[in-house]
Sequence to fold (138 residues):
Amino acid sequence: MKVRQVMTTDIYSINKGEEIAKAAEIMRAIDIGALPVHDGEKIVGMVTDRDIAIRNVARRHGPNIPCEEVMTPKIISCSPDTSIDEAANIMAEHQIRRLPVIEDGILVGIVSLGDLATVKETKAEAGDALSSISVSHQ
Fold:
């Protein structure tokens, strides 16, 4: 099974220059924990609720700081044709819960551990990936 069969295609993203408060508002409104950050059509980072807590609030920065100053700039991604097993392995290896899906340089979806956990064939891999992520953050 391929990532394209389980990924979320209703994607929200934010411009790198937008205020971090706007990213938090979007996350709250649609109940998500991460937003891709773009510069034009190119994805340049991801900002997560954890990034906001650690890189903004814990440093006592205000809500007007640009997303690009808080985001994680390293993009770990996959293509729609990546197998779901490989996607789970990428998430475990890089200790991430969400993986942007990029095709021809354009963000076309996001696959999460939750998406993988709903697929019978990958429930074990998703559980292993979550265990790997959870252990390293303790």
In short: Strands lie at 14-15, 34-39, 42-48, 98-103, 106-112. The first helix runs from residue 20 to 30. DSSP finds five helices and five strands in the chain. Helices lie at 20-30, 49-57, 84-94, 113-117, 123-136.
